[in-house]
Amino acid sequence: MTLSMYQASIPVFIRVLGNLSKILDKGFAFAETKKIDPGVLINARLAPDMFPLSRQVQIATDGVKGCAARLAGIEVPSYLDNETTFPELQARIKKTVDFVNTVNPSQIDGSEERIVTLKVRNRELTFKGQPYLLHYVLPNLFFHTTTAYAILRHNGVEVGKLDYLGNPE
Amino acid sequence: MTLSMYQASIPVFIRVLGNLSKILDKGFAFAETKKIDPGVLINARLAPDMFPLSRQVQIATDGVKGCAARLAGIEVPSYLDNETTFPELQARIKKTVDFVNTVNPSQIDGSEERIVTLKVRNRELTFKGQPYLLHYVLPNLFFHTTTAYAILRHNGVEVGKLDYLGNPE
Fold first, then answer.
1. Most buried among A102, B22, B38, B57, using CB within 10 Å?
2. B83 vs chain A: nearest CA distance in angstroms?
3. Residue A29, class by beta-carbon neighbours within 10 Å (0-12 exposed, 13-18 middle, 19+ buried)?
C-alpha cells in the first residue's frame, strides 16, 4: 500500500492511544494493588513545571482529534479537560478513538498542502498538512504519550517498552 | 508534495536529531554553569531500570541509521556505543545525520512493502517497510528523544517544548 496522509495519521493515532490506554490500565492496577490513592499518579509530574499525568493524556488526545479534524476540514470536537480519574481519562481516549474512526481516508488523503491554522498559547500557527502531521502532530503525540509512560514508570509502575510500542509487526 | 516514505523518514530524522542536539547543548551548558560533573547528567535515569541519558541518545541514533539503511537496502553502519561525554554524544548525532544525508529519495521511496528484518533482544522482528517506519521506528525515535529531554528537565535543565519541537512551521 502506498504511504498516504491517512495511513500516516489515523491508524498511527488509534494504535498509540490504544497503547496509552493499556499503560494507564497498568497505572490504575498499580494504585489498587499498592493501596495508593490513584490521584497521586494522576497528579504526578516529572518536574515541578511540567504537566501532570492527566494533562499529558488530555494533550495527547487533543492533538489527535485536532489533526484528524483539521486535515479532514471538519470541526474540531471540543472537550472540557475536566478528567481527574483513570476511568475518566480512559473515557476521553475512547471518545477520541471513536471520533477519529469516523474520519475516512477520502477526507484525509491529498491533504499534504492543505492549510491548517491553530492557536497555541495565544499564538497562531499556520502549516501545510504534511509538515503539520510530520513535524508537529506526531512529535507532540509521542512526546505526551512517552511522558505519561515515564511518569508512571518513574513512580514504580511496571511498564516496559512493549507496552508503549504494542506489537509493531 | 505527495507524502512519500522518504518524506516521512529522512527529513523527520534530521529534524529530530537536530533538536536533540540543541537539548543536549542546554544540558552541557547547565552542568558548566552549575559546576556539576556532566557525567551526572550523562548517567541520569528516570527510573533505576531505565537507560541513562547516554543510552537514550545511542538508541535514538541507532534507530535512525538502521531505518535509513534498511529501507534503502544498504548496510547498517556499526557504532561502538562507547560515548560517555556530551561532545561524544554530539559527534554520534552528527555522524548519524551525515550518514542519513547520503541516502537519497530514490533509495527510500517505494519501500512501503520492502521486507525488513532486525534483531531486538535476541528476537528477530520482520516488518514491511511502512509499518516498520510508522509503528516502530518513529515511535522509538520520539520515545528516546522525549526521554532524553525528560531526564534533563527532571534534573533542572531549562528545556521547553519548543526545544523539542524546533520551529515546526
1. B57
2. 23
3. middle
B121–A contact, CB cutoff 8 A: no
Q: Which of A146, A153, A161 sits opposite B146 (nearest CB)?
A: A146
Cα B96 to chain centroid distance, Å, stands at 9
Cell of B22: 540543541
A59 — contact with chain B (CB < 8 Å)? no
Question: How does pLDDT run along chain A (169 residues), one tens digit per residue?
Answer: 799 999 999 999 999 999 999 999 999 999 999 999 999 999 999 999 999 999 999 999 999 999 999 999 999 999 999 999 999 999 999 999 999 999 999 999 999 999 999 988 888 999 999 999 999 999 999 999 999 999 999 999 999 999 999 986 6
Residue A52: count of CB within 10 angstroms of its CB: 18
Whether the CB-CB separation of A95 and A78 falls below 8 Å is answered with: no
